Amino acid sequence: MAGGGGELQLLGSWYSPYAIRAKIALGLKGLSYEYIEQDLSSKSELLLKSNPVHKKVPVLIHGGRPVCESLVVLEYVDEAWAGDGPPLLPADANDRATARFWTNYFDSTFFPSWRALYRSTTAEQRAEAFRNAVPQVETLERAFGECSKGKAFFGGDAVGLVDVVIGSFVLWFRVVDDVAGTNLLDQAKSPGLAAWAERFLAVDAVREAMPDAELLLEHYKEFLAKFASPAGST
Fold first, then answer.
1. DSSP 150-175
2. Of 40, 56, 138, 139, which residue is most buried, by most CB within 10 angstroms?
């Protein structure tokens, strides 16, 4: 097992799906590290120094050198500890390109669509946002069929990059569904994704990285209350 606490540090926020990505990757590789919780409303000097451009989590600090942005962190972990745990990216160049395509799709296309649902505070807003998100879910359902090739995960037999990127949001999907009265990964409409989500959450490294669902629900309700108030920030 590589990486002692002093050598490897992770700056994150417990509710951040982007920080959860890093936790999952480190767990899959069997790495030990020091986790340093960050208050994003009062950012630490360590965070500001480590990620002066975006000032966001996660930041992985390896041997005193920071690595920023969740997708970059995932690929860094995969490369730096190639001999530990399953590879996050496949060996085949075309399969790697396909995985990168879908991770980019999720962050640049799917997430903005779903974020509208996350930020909705009225029934009308939620209904419209959900309608707009459904085609993106249908696209991911097709992507799962393409990437998994009939196996358990986007990465095939084992969790890969696309699984970690999308899967880090699964609890958030459920929390927002709970409040909005929606069902994003509907078993009838997206059977592949619905079954995949259950398998993904059952993976040890994933289960250990995920926050408590009830705490996440309370955090989300508090966010909505602030967001809906006249002084709420966007």
1. TSSBTTBSS--HHHHHHHTTHHHHHH
2. 56
Can you give the pLDDT at residue 28?
98
Whose tokens are 């999907």? That residue is 173
CA 48 to chain centre: 22
Judge residue 107's burial from the number of C-beta atoms within 10 Å of its C-beta, 0-12 exposed, 13-18 middle, 19 or more buried. Answer: middle
Cis preceding linkage at 17, omega within 30:
no
Of 94, 65, 93, 99, the closest CA to residue 80 belongs to 65
Domains identified in the chain and CATH numbers: 8-80 (3.40.30.10), 93-223 (1.20.1050.10)
CA atoms within a 13 Å half-sphere pointing along the CA-CB vector of 214 = 0
Q: Are 151 and 198 in contact (CB under 8 A)?
A: no
* Three-point CA angle 147, 19, 63, nearest 5°: 105
Who's near 226: CB < 8 A, 6+ residues apart?
Answer: 232, 233
Mark the ranges of the chain whose per-residue pLDDT is less than 50. 1-5, 233-234
- Please tell me the pTM assigned to this model: 0.95
